[in-house]
Amino acid sequence: MCSYLFVSIAYGVMMNEAGFAWYVAILVSFLIYTGAFQFLLITLLIGGRNFFTYNWCYSSFNE
Is 18 helix (H, G, I), strand (E, B) or coil? Predict the structure, then answer.
């Protein structure tokens, strides 16, 4: 259970370094269940990908 704390801190730091507000990290954490996709989403949002790319990646992570 303690490892979740460290992963969530790492995720928050990465979102902050990417230029997102603190509440965006919390919102994404509530809306997206897959932890690996949360980290991938940071890269996709920075790169300016479209909605279909998010949908395809999210569905492939949840299979």
Answer: coil
Q: Which two tokens stand for residue 20?
A: 């997102």
Phi/psi region, residue 48 (left: phi>0; alpha: psi -120 to 50; beta: rest), is: left
> Would you state the structure tokens that stand for residue 47, as one six-digit string?
């790169």
Contact 15, 7 (CB under 8 A): no
Per-block mean pLDDT, blocks of 10 residues, the chain (63 long): 83 91 89 81 77 66 60
pTM summary value: 0.68
Which one, of 12, 9, 16, lies nearest residue 46 by Cα?
A: 16
Residues 35 and 58: beta-carbon distance below 8 Å: no
Q: What does the block give as tokens for 25?
A: 């990290």
